[in-house]
Amino acid sequence: MSGHVDVLAMAREQLSVAANYLELDSGLHQVLSRPMRQLIVNFPVVLDNGEVMVFEGYRVQHNSSRGPTKGGIRYHQDVDVNETTALAMWMTWKCAVANIPFGGAKGSVKVDTKQFSRREIEKLTRRYVTEINIILGERSDIPAPDIGTNAQVMAWIMDTFSMQKGYTVPGVVTGKPVDLGGSLGRVEATGRGVIVAAEEACKTIGLNFNGARVVVQGFGNVGSVAASIAAQHGAIVVGISDAVGGIYNPKGLPVDELVHRYSGREGGIREYKDAQPVSNSELLELDCDILIPAAIAAQITGDNADKIKAKLIVEGANGPSTPDADKILHDKGILVVPDILANAGGVIVSYFEWVQDLQNFFWEEDAVNERLTKIMRHSFAQVHEAMMIHKTDMRTAALIIGVKRVADATIRRGIFP
Ligand code: NAD
After folding, report:
1. DSSP characters for 39-90?
2. CB 345 less than 6 A from any atom of ligand 1
3. Each residue of 68-93: b (16+ CB within 10 Å) or e?
């Protein structure tokens, strides 16, 4: 999914940097660099035309020393087990940085959802969940949405798991529709958290968020909400894109109108005429203050990092910058708020949803948003402080905190038996 970039190698390289800072014991480093469990499933689906097609899917649990594993399910044609493992590892650090009681996991199915009907995607989902349900559970491993999946897919996951248990288990998955035990604020949570991180980061570099020029790559769940809240908070969104390409207007784009008319319709934003069309690579290099990659991994690399003009990059996507790019951006003085901090809003509100499901007691949206903002600000402050203490970049600082919390939990629990 990330072209030629090996994202697992990238995740392991990031871990090694943190391990060096922490002077981690080599045995412990080995434990953390590998997933505790990888399940590969091949399963058939009868298509609408009666043909049988076999799909490949994965569920990877990286580490559960701080709690049940948690992580999204991605439907995309380019996924593989290594990428899924890298994403599971990042989830472990992300939950630890936010200090919520989960380990990391990730799931995926190799499928181009655009080629299949809604009924086929439902059948695929139900069969995939049946294949991986031996390792899922509200106390063991809890999925959520990611690229190509949404609240409806989460509802099918919950229903399938519950049918097999014989009773309703809302806590087995988060990001569900609100009327099925979902949390208010979950849909917006990742994008909202991205903007909290952006605003906090602005304060540290003396940039006024109000009036800042923002470019967002990806116009799905994370990108469209981040763009919309950025505009509500006074920023000027000058560029946005989806998988087909982007649009640019230095005077600003009408984000809410674009969300209303085009989100969920791949390529739709290009129909908006009062803007200049740009490719996804041109979009990243636009003149702006804040760049929010919110699509896929490995978008900012050694090849284009030098051309980035933003002063601040806030990673809505997972793994959008490679380690090569990190070095270049750091040398250029561009502050990068890393994925494991910047996009933690999703898993934080997923945690709230899980707590609400376990208690059967539901919160008002204001309470959700307030608690989300509080955790995001607190995590940002801790990571920023670690960055100053260790005189490093923000990703390394976040990893130092996340990896240390997981390492400490592993040591305290001890190696069984
Ligand atoms: P989504 O499927 O809703 O949207 C993805 C967007 O990226 C779409 O607009 C799509 O057109 C665009 N896109 C796909 N391929 C692209 C390409 N090659 N170039 C440019 N744009 C491309 O997915 P999402 O849930 O918004 O997730 C986006 C990113 O945020 C992913 O990296 C995901 O792992 C990460 N993330 C999501 C959540 C969440 O709660 N949904 C939480 C944390 C992190």
Report:
1. EEEEEEEE-TTS-EEEEEEEEEEEE-TTSSEEEEEEEETT--HHHHHHHHHH
2. no
3. bbbbbbbbbeebebbbbbbbbbbbbb
Sign of CA dihedral 73, 76, 77, 82: negative
Residue numbers annotated as active site: 106
Choose the weakest-confidence range: 1-5, 129-133, 145-149, 376-380: 1-5
Where are the domains positioned within the chain?
35-169, 187-342
Q: Counting beta carbons within 10 angstroms of the beta carbon of residue 54, is it exposed (0 to 12), middle (13 to 18) or buried (19 or more)?
A: exposed
Cβ 113 under 6 angstroms from ligand 1: no
Is 3 a residue whose pLDDT tops 80?
A: no
3-class DSSP state of 5: coil
Query: Does residue 108 have its Cβ closer than 6 Å to ligand 1?
Result: no
Residue 403 has pLDDT above 90, yes or no: yes
Ligand 1 nearest-atom number relative to CA 189: 40
- Looking at CATH, the fold of the domain delimited by 187-342 is given as Rossmann fold (3.40.50)
Residue 2 in this model has a pLDDT that exceeds 80: no
Which residue among 75, 84, 190, 372 has the greatest number of ligand 1 atoms within 8 angstroms of its CB, and so is best to mutate? Answer: 190
Residue 60: which pLDDT band, with cuts at 50, 70 and 90?
very high
CATH classification (class only), 35-169: alpha beta
The one-letter code for the residue type at 294 is A
Q: Do domains 35-169 and 187-342 have the same CATH topology?
A: yes
